[in-house]
Structures are given as structure tokens and as C-alpha cells.
Amino acid sequence: MLTEPERESRDIYWLRRAAAEKKFNVQVNCISEYLASLALVGPNSRQVLSELTKSDVSEEGFPQRSTRLMRLGAVSVVCARSSTSTGHLSYELFHNRADSARLYQEIIRAGTPHGVVNFGQATMNSMRLEHGYKIWGRELTLDTNPFECGLGTLVDFNKEDFIGRPAALSLSKQTFDRRLELLTFDPADNSSVPLEWKNLPFGMEVVRREGQEERIGQITSGSYSVRLRRPIAFAWIDSSVQPNERLSVDVGLDCRLIATILEKIPHTPIQ
């Protein structure tokens, strides 16, 4: 099982508690201290991967949401193909921590002719926002449920029984006073406020209707989208807000940006 670093302790506790309550004959162990992960992301990632392994990494041989044990150069890895962090063609490479430097050097060597570069958290955040992906600790918390944040289709009620099924079924029939929306900030609407890094919404900023003072929402996370050439952010907003309403977001003392709701995600994720 893979989880976010921020959720590790909570998820281990939950699994162990569930195993004890259900009297399953299993052990739940954390192996994070032994493993590390590198991600190979982008349109040329399959080509780079193919130059490092004899395994079949074609679309047919290694489809989305599948995992393979393979060797990349001299390093054994568990390779998971997933786009859920970036929206792009991606491979997550789980390996022994002692092999991290060697694996990284192999990837750089094979990837340099294809333009491989390092990228960090800010870039990954921008990519996942452009593809409409929500993350734990920001859009997804213990105070949210799948049906109010647009993930209700992931709950499979065809399964006869699972922990939380009655509560989930009840929530699926309810309406909520808030919803999660993706906002964008058109430079033409914000000519009086420089769209520089210090004025971008990153999280916790208050959302209002344009020209009004009532608080009707809050930013959960945001970044600058290089592909859209403007800021982009997720926000919880009041359910009464109409799709075509103009909003304002507090980004500083007496400094507000005009925002609009995106009707659809800017870029379709790789499936």
C-alpha cells in the first residue's frame, strides 16, 4: 500500500485497528525506512525507461495503473505507472534507499538526450492543479467526504460490505452547503495587481463575491500555471455561488484578485 508521507502514521494505525477488529490473520508493517522513490515524468518518460530496461514498457505491455518488478540498469525497482500526481505519463520507481544515487545517475545518463531535468514540489503542484487532481492535506482532509469534493464515483456500492459503507451510502443521498471548485485568475481582470509570486493564492485565502464582503469560501491550494499563463487554485465555495459569478480572493492587505470558476479542467489527465 502506498500513501502520502503526512498520512503514514494515521494509515498504519487505521489498518492495524481494522485488522484487529475484524480478527484478520495479517501483520501490518511499515517499510518506508527501507525504500525510496524517484518519479520519471513527461511525454518522453517511456522512451527513457525503455533505454534502461529489457522489460516491455509499451502501452500494451505496461498499461496505466499497473505495477512491474524490473531492473533499471543495475538497480532493481518496483515500477508503478500512474499519473495521479501530475496528470502526465509517469513512472514511480520504488527501490532500496542505498541504490538512490546510482538509480538517479542512470536516469540522468539515459534521459539527458531527451531533455530530462529535475523538478520540485512547486512544479508538481502546478501540474496536478492543471489536471484537476486533489491531494490529501489540502482538498482532502478528515473533514471532507467523497461526495462533496467530486470523488463520489470512486465509492463502489456494488461491493456488499466495506468499512464505512452505511455512512457513505447516507452521504451519497445528501446535498451539501459547499462544493470544491477550480478557480482561475485572468490577467486582464487583475491589471491593478501584479501577478507576481508574492500575490499568488497558495492556500487559506478568503474567497468573496466580487464587490461584497461576505466570506463565501476559502482557497485550499494554488500555484501559477505556466501552460495557462495565469494563477490557478482549488477552493471550497458556498453552494449558492453560480458558475458564471465573479469572485474576489484576498491575497494581502487591501489586495484582492478577481477569480472565475473553470467549467472544466484545463487539461485531461493521461488515462
Question: Would you give an account of this structure?
Answer:
Substrate binds at residue 92. Belongs to the GcvT family. Residues 200-264 form the Aminomethyltransferase C-terminal domain. Pfam families: GCV_T, GCV_T_C. The chain contains five helices and ten strands, in the order αβαβββαααββββββ. The protein is of the alpha+beta class and 271 residues long. Among the domains are: 34-118, Probable tRNA modification gtpase trme, domain 1 (Gyrase A, domain 2, 2-Layer Sandwich), CATH 3.30.1360.120; 176-261, Aminomethyltransferase beta-barrel domains (Elongation Factor Tu (Ef-tu), domain 3), CATH 2.40.30. 19% of the residues lie in helices and 27% in strands. The longest helix has 15 residues, at 8-22. The two termini are 21 Å apart.
What descriptors fit this protein?
single chain; 271 residues; alpha+beta; Gyrase A, domain 2; Elongation Factor Tu (Ef-tu), domain 3; 27% strand; globular; TrmE/GcvT-like; GcvT/YgfZ/DmdA; GcvT/YgfZ_C
